[in-house]
């Protein structure tokens, strides 16, 4: 039985992790985000369990290791928030949840596309106010449109399959093309061709030095005028200031975001009684053709159950064998 300090713990983490754990380990749920200020709350627990906006930086890792922590169990697929070099030199194992219902994130990307295209967010408000006018709600048929998928891993492939079901032509860019994707009729193209051809661009790649601000002024200039961009990957894949310029000029016709570069100061908290300090984010909220959700793409019962079961399996395997089931691999390429 290991002591596990679970940071950024929300009621759903308590519910799903406790059920998956079934008394196997001693779980301590800590509401605070992991950071240099809160790392002491880990209290020397053998395992620290972290989520996407926890700051698993070098100083945090050093302090954890010095206090006796041996494992960082991530409740996420992405690991861009972990200083892997520091973890390696401190001798800490890092596990993650590589695959949990790719449907959750893929379907959320589709939800953003449908909402933006058919103006559901605006129609909802109009109808509640007794305004049944259709002006400004005009959409387009998805059937026959070209969808560009950047990153065809588990989620990107699932997303591509759904869009094929809508009758879309799906093109993709990935340094490691997937045969499964090609088999479902997806065509791999160079990134610039994807930018130039796609009516809708969906980002499903991890955040790496190569994908940081992949969507910037230069990329937007290569896209079809009025393109729809949807990002459910990681916030920093998109340069938020560049997309604001693109929205103002009409270069971008619609934008759906589930992630935002500076989301750590905003998402997962109820800030409805406070003034938002992030002016870039506040500007994004003003556009009628922007829909933002607060990193909720993963938030389905099936995904939470998958995350909890794999996290506990990683911790149990580490206790029994000294290594986790799903170690964090060095980024490919
Ligand atoms: P995966 O590891 O199965 O696939 C990622 C794919 O991206 C791979 O095929 C890889 O070759 C490709 N890739 C790497 N560098 C690339 C580049 N420069 N350009 C284009 N493609 C590149 O990961 P999975 O499970 O499909 O997840 C994708 C990302 O989605 C995660 O890294 C994570 O950041 C994000 N995510 C977001 C969630 C949310 O709630 N919004 C939940 C889960 C994941």
TrEMBL record:
The keyword Oxidoreductase applies. It comes from Cereibacter ovatus. Belongs to the D-isomer specific 2-hydroxyacid dehydrogenase family. This is D-lactate dehydrogenase. Residues 4-328 form the D-isomer specific 2-hydroxyacid dehydrogenase catalytic domain. PANTHER family: 2-HYDROXYACID DEHYDROGENASE HOMOLOG 1-RELATED. GO terms for molecular function: D-lactate dehydrogenase (NAD+) activity; NAD binding. Keywords: NAD, Oxidoreductase. Gene3D superfamilies: NAD(P)-binding Rossmann-like Domain. Residues 110-297 form the D-isomer specific 2-hydroxyacid dehydrogenase NAD-binding domain.
């Amino acid at each position: 039985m290991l002591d596990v300090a679970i940071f950024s713990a929300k009621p759903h983490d308590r519910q799903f992790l406790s059920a998956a754990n079934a008394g196997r380990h001693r779980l301590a749920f800590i509401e605070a985000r992991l950071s240099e200020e809160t790392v002491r709350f880990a209290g020397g627990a053998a395992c620290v369990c972290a989520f996407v906006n926890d700051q698993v930086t070098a100083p945090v890792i050093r302090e954890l290791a010095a206090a006796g922590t041996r494992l960082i169990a991530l409740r996420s697929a992405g690991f861009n928030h972990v200083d892997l070099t520091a973890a390696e030199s401190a001798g800490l194992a890092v596990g993650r949840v590589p695959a949990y219902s790719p449907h959750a994130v893929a379907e959320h990307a589709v939800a953003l596309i449908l909402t933006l295209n058919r103006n559901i967010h605006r129609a909802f408000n109009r109808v509640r106010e007794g305004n049944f006018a259709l002006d400004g709600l005009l959409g387009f048929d998805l059937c026959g449109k070209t969808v560009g998928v950047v990153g065809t891993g588990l989620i990107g492939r699932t997303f591509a399959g759904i869009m094929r079901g809508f009758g879309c032509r799906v093109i993709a860019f990935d340094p490691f093309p997937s045969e499964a994707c090609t088999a479902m009729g997806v065509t791999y193209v160079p990134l610039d061709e994807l930018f130039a051809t796609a009516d809708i661009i969906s980002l499903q790649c991890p955040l790496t030095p190569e994908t940081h601000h992949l969507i910037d002024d230069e990329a937007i200039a290569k896209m079809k005028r009025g393109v729809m961009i949807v990002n459910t990957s990681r916030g920093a894949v998109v340069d938020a200031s560049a997309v604001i310029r693109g929205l103002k000029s009409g270069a971008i016709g619609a934008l759906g975001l589930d992630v935002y570069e500076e989301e750590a100061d905003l998402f997962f908290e109820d800030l409805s009684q406070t003034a938002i300090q992030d002016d870039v984010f506040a500007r994004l909220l003003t556009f009628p053709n922007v829909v933002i959700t607060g990193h909720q793409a993963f938030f389905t019962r099936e995904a939470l159950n998958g995350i909890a079961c794999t996290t506990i399996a990683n911790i149990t395997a580490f206790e029994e064998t000294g290594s986790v089931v799903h170690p964090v691999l060095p980024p490919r390429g």
